[in-house]
Design the sequence.
């Protein structure tokens, strides 16, 4: 895997990785990236609120830990790096801060299972594991880090939902411009 920082994404999908469509490629039914990022940010706030309610219900002495919040923000680039290491080929990192996002784009095809793992890996490492550690330790740092990191993964959960509900068994997925596609590989 080779990671290349491409800078600011200008919203022009044709500037992203231009891969040829596969024969029989079917576009995922998904929102355009600029609309997705707006919805994802709103949904992220709702999830964050619900997670903090859960933390307070579990431990009435829970308090927001500023270090946990800061570390979750600092994990934004490592989050994308964890996505990137799931690729074997070159991966490009883009910033799209005007819409509140960063993302990586890779040119290789993936199985559904590998795509789901790639999508969830950073959310497990920075979100769910620290969040669960809070319930063992009652350490506010872990609870805050986990809650913020889980809520920042909304775009990833959307990709997982699309893969699980739209890709048939044994299908493979790839990215063309800013859209995900799936296809059935030819039997050997």
Sequence:
């Amino acid at each position: 895997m080779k990671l290349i920082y491409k800078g600011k994404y200008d919203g022009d999908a044709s500037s992203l990785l231009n891969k040829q469509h596969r024969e029989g490629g079917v576009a995922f039914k998904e929102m355009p990236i600029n609309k997705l990022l707006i919805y994802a940010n709103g949904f992220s706030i709702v999830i964050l609120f619900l997670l903090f309610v859960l933390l307070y219900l579990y431990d009435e002495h829970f308090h927001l830990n500023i270090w946990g919040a800061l570390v979750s923000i600092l994990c934004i680039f490592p989050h994308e790096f964890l996505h990137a290491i799931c690729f074997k080929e070159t991966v490009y990192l883009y910033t799209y801060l005007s819409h509140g996002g960063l993302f990586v784009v890779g040119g290789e095809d993936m199985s559904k299972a590998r795509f789901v793992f790639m999508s969830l890996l950073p959310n497990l490492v920075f979100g769910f594991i620290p969040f669960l550690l809070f319930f063992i330790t009652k350490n506010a740092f872990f609870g805050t880090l986990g809650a913020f990191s889980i809520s920042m993964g909304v775009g990833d959960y959307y990709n997982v939902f699309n893969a699980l509900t739209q890709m048939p068994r044994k299908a493979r997925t790839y990215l063309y411009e800013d859209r995900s596609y799936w296809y059935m590989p030819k039997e050997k």
